[in-house]
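User: I'm putting together a teaching handout on how sequence relates to shape, and I'd like one worked example. Could you take RING-type domain-containing protein from Desulfoluna limicola, show the sequence you're using, and then write out its predicted structure as tokens right after it?

Assistant: Happy to. First the sequence, then the structure tokens directly below it.
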Amino acid sequence: MPRTSKKISSYKLKKLKAQEEPCHCCGKDDLFFAYRCRCSFTICQDCMDENVWGMTCNGITWECPDCSEQNGFGNQ
Ligand SMILES: [Zn+2]
Ligand SMILES: [Zn+2]
């Protein structure tokens, strides 16, 4: 007997528990760490590293490309 029902419920549970946006840049989810804006824009560490030159002008805050909010790098 296939145990699909168990698989689906645990998948749903994981999704519900996470409630996290995937990276808006590369689409990767299940992120260990990501930068998030209050507008729900999310960017992963890898994409931030690649795009940091276009996201910040002072190295202290990064500007959300969606809402232009200034977000700090460190403490969230
Ligand atoms: Zn990414
Ligand atoms: Zn934003």
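A couple of points you could highlight for students: The chain has a mean pLDDT of 84. The pocket of zinc ion (ligand 1) is lined by residues 23, 25-26, 28, 43-44, 46-47 (CB under 6 Å).
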